[in-house]
Amino acid sequence: MAESIETASVDTSTENKDQCEDFFLKSGQFDELFEHIRRTKEHNDALAIETEMFKKFLERVSPLDATLDTKWNIAPQPPPGQDQLSTMPGSRASRKRSKSKVGAIDKTHKLSPEQKCEISQRETDELKSELVRLKEKTSKDIDLYRAMMDEAEEREAEINRARYEFERDIEKGARNARTNKVVGEKVRRYLEEYLKRRNEKIDKLKLKNSTLKGQKKKLSMQLKQKEEMGEVLHEVDFNQLKIENQQYIEKIDERNQDLLKLKMTAGNTLQVLNAYKHKLQECTELSKRLEQEANSRKELLERIDCETSQVEKERNKAESINKKLKQQLDDYKVPEVMDYVTEKADVYELQKKVKSWERKLEIAEMALKIHKKDWTRLQMTNQNNPWYASVPAPPAQQKVQTQ
């Protein structure tokens, strides 16, 4: 039975849907319907955002405030029990008031545009103030975390330095070379020095802390005096200072950009200057080389001039000799042919005599060498014979000796 009722309801719904589609297709109002649905969705989204804003405002500000009741004509809320009974879907009060009180409730709880604008402005101011508080809180947290990171880095560096010193002075420097054991006296001395350094550092930090406390106290006194004299800055002054600070930050950014451009220009100029310096160095080396070459060329030219002058002198001398020879040649007279023939014959005879005498001289030298050898042999054999030594040599041998 239930299944038949469901199928019947589905059939009727599908039939109604088909009838509606046929009606809209016949009338051609699909585009208008979709546009109306889209506008309705956008309006509902805007109302949802507005309702969420009003909800936050009511959560922050009590709705039972008398000033708000008189200013915005907010009707008093019914008691919780009565409200629950009246809002129950099956109650009689809800059925009776559902039609008669709709207009009155709408008129009572409807806000004017000025009220909505004021609420939105107050919510905007609250969001801005909350954003400022959040920024201050985050900046304080960031400063705290940075201080903690700096402290952690400092402690890490100190621990690494202490570990390095311990390994250097104790692990490597305090071991006995023979037993390879750590000497206790060195360890005790190292720990005493370490504790002494730590105490000195603690004293310095205490002094620094006391100095900072004095500065803080002094600044708090100055701030208190300014508050008493009425020189405390108000929110407007802070806003003005923020604006000026923003302007100065923009100016600093501009100056930084200009400085960056000037640095880039200076870098380019330095590169060009280095290139010109390199070219100048090359030109200087070329100039020195050319100067050396010019000096060598000058020396060569001087030597060439000296040689030219000497050659000129020799040429003059040769010309004078040549002139004398030419004069002799001009003054020379050719002898007779018979005189030449006789002179030539005499020269030939003299050459033959010279050759014969040279041959005789060679023979005599050979004989002399032979006689010398015989004489030295005789002297060697008879040098101990006094009689032979007292006997004079024959005349031929004396002649040879004298020769």
TrEMBL record:
GO terms for biological process: cilium assembly. Residues 196-369 form the CCDC113/CCDC96 coiled-coil domain. It is found in: Cell projection, Cilium. This is Cilia- and flagella-associated protein 263. GO terms for cellular component: axoneme; ciliary basal body. It comes from the Eukaryota. The keyword Signal does not apply. Residues 117-169, 195-374 form a coiled coil.
